[in-house]
Amino acid sequence: MSYCTATYRIYDPKADFERKAQSIAIGMTVGTWTELPQIKQEEMRRHLGRVERIQVHEPETGSETERYADVSISYPDVNFTRDLPALLITVFGKISMDGKIKLLDLEFSDSFLSAFPGPKFGLDGVRDLLGVKGRPLLMSIFKSVVGYDLNGLKEQFLAQALGGVDLIKDDEILFENPLTPIDQRVRVCREAAEEAERVTGKKLLYATNLTGPTSKLKEQALRAIDAGASALLFSVLPYGFDVLHELSSDPDITVPIAAHPSLAGALYPSPHYGIAASLLLGKLMRIAGADLVLFPSPYGSVVMPREENLAIRRELTAEGLPQRASFPVPSAGIHPGLVPRILDDFGTDVVVNAGGGIHGHPGGASAGGRAFLQAIDAAMNGVSLEQASASLPELKAALDLWGGQR
Amino acid sequence: MSYCTATYRIYDPKADFERKAQSIAIGMTVGTWTELPQIKQEEMRRHLGRVERIQVHEPETGSETERYADVSISYPDVNFTRDLPALLITVFGKISMDGKIKLLDLEFSDSFLSAFPGPKFGLDGVRDLLGVKGRPLLMSIFKSVVGYDLNGLKEQFLAQALGGVDLIKDDEILFENPLTPIDQRVRVCREAAEEAERVTGKKLLYATNLTGPTSKLKEQALRAIDAGASALLFSVLPYGFDVLHELSSDPDITVPIAAHPSLAGALYPSPHYGIAASLLLGKLMRIAGADLVLFPSPYGSVVMPREENLAIRRELTAEGLPQRASFPVPSAGIHPGLVPRILDDFGTDVVVNAGGGIHGHPGGASAGGRAFLQAIDAAMNGVSLEQASASLPELKAALDLWGGQR
């Protein structure tokens, strides 16, 4: 018998959590139990959910904190098929609507996990493609290019590429449009990448945004790959984890997939409802096959608490899962002065991802990229940015504008 | 120029909401505005978002209510493709992660709406299939049938069908399994439906649960339809609205689709985050093509406030949209004594949907169905249930057990 286990945080001022847990374990599996005749119980036992742990947090008298319990329940694999919609429907479908309840974590059986090849490249594979080891990667984000034509797009791409960045990603709000359709967009950006490569001597991945009807996503991905796409950007949540899983496990999709957290804020930030960030943007993204995973950094204006960031990182990279590790990409509000702090928080296996911090550099986007690389180099060598910037005008300009660590 | 408009509730104790709204309207479209040269502004104006309305709710001094604003922003259709993922990514992708913000409503342009045929049958079409006008429909839900074989399933189906229900739906946690694979399940339930029809003289739709990998859903639906399925049950949210849209607009899918709200509780209940129930389970389900939409009733243990229920009903049935109306199916906690209240709240265009209220009837599931039909008949004729039950033993037994209106 193998089981997948879900852990919930359930808020209730008075509930008997033991009873509540039992009612979930029974209600979401065999429906009824004590009413069943003995012989039927024998038959149904292999389908019955099991309460694993209950940890009740009683608020101190007079305190304003709420009473809750963390409850873990195991669901027999035999009850559901080995796909993420079936698992999510089983463990959180109906009970997501049953009062204040948040899904904190899932532990999967080996049998369930065996259906998920996970990231095709993963953290190490992306490093191999770029030939970069031992330092954080640098990604830059297109500024809004809605309404741009191919020339405008190419120009912006080239400016970023010449700064020496490792990856460039589309804006996730750039959809198929007559000015920059995906195959032509990929073609001109590839040309620009090659042009830049001749100058910088560096390889570069361009994650082009995969959009449109669900049933056409594979076709569109193949069109992009045919045109020379070296990576894909995909907003997973509006389509569901299963679509990412199907794309990433498809042998014809031969490039890394970067998962965008679009819509995630509808699901993770409430303490009472939804799905914890570490599960939503960590473990589930990795199992579904994202090679890189973007999530809101704790540094910028779109903020996620630092401990949630670190929990996501842990889920994306921890050993213990058969799936390759995914590259963590904390995003938003990143400027060169933050690089030492990012290294402290994430270590070297992180993608430093910047938009405004590259485009807003007083010397332009290329200087912006160089300032980041200088910051990364200094931080990796234990040199303070202030000290390093004395001989590095791009880094100095960035620190002057945005300051050091905040 | 045509636009789709999103309305958000944004909580902030001090924000300048005018400025915040402008920053969303610009940030989620052209990226920057005031910095653009005049000539570039002319070029980009057609891509620029527009602040439509801002309604600030200032809490009274000393009150504990929070300060918030309802903000409406229009996004030019030219910026996104005519699919729901593109729209959701545009209006809520990134800003869902930007503090306390909830998406309350969307208004669509005629151009956007024209890409969505909506429900193939809708409320009237489902009535036509059943030949039932002018009264609420009655749906019964399989009790958990995880672990059942075909005989057990058929037996339970027949008991429900003989009670005269109009629709029977699978449990949403019944996935493909060796005991009751979809085509065989449909075949035996169809036989049972025909058997019951010979007794009751009534037609019956059976919504079989559509599950599994996204790319195989259509194939599985066709297998079910080939085997004689008369309707499909589909958990929309784990797969995304676009998958429902693609299934419902496919000419080969020739039966109604009932949308299950599985996972919806991760999205709608928080006041601060997520997507309002009326949009999530109302307007979006209708536009994406659900013929029937289940949602938690305000009557049972899985509770949604009555006003949210009525808002869902409004969105599913209101005139003003080109899409057919969807049948509202408030679910959970329904017993015959509640029928007059359901009629008061929803009118006759509602599906009375019961699980325990049918299976738990002292006379069994068939008697349970009859008790509901008796309650519907009495309520439609303005007769009190108490009075009607004097000559109707099934209704009387139900009222004795569960009481009248709560």
Automatic annotation (TrEMBL), chains A, B:
GO molecular function annotations of the record: 2,3-diketo-5-methylthiopentyl-1-phosphate enolase activity; magnesium ion binding; ribulose-bisphosphate carboxylase activity
Family assignment from sequence similarity: Belongs to the RuBisCO large chain family.
Alphabetically ordered keywords of this record: Amino-acid biosynthesis, Isomerase, Magnesium, Metal-binding, Methionine biosynthesis
Domain Ribulose bisphosphate carboxylase large subunit C-terminal: 125-292, 325-402
Top-rank taxon: Bacteria
EC class (word): isomerase
UniProt signal peptide: none
NCBIfam families in UniProt: PRK09549.1, salvage_mtnW
Organism of derivation: Paenibacillus faecis
UniProt domain Ribulose bisphosphate carboxylase large subunit ferrodoxin-like N-terminal: residue ranges: 8-106
Pfam families (UniProt xref): RuBisCO_large, RuBisCO_large_N
The protein's name in its UniProt record: 2,3-diketo-5-methylthiopentyl-1-phosphate enolase
One GO-annotated biological process of the protein: L-methionine salvage from methylthioadenosine
The enzyme's E.C. designation: 5.3.2.5
Stored InterPro entries: Diketo-Methiopentyl-P_enolase, RuBisCO, RuBisCO_lsu_C, RuBisCO_lsu_C_sf, RuBisCO_lsu_fd_N, RuBisCO_lsu_N_sf
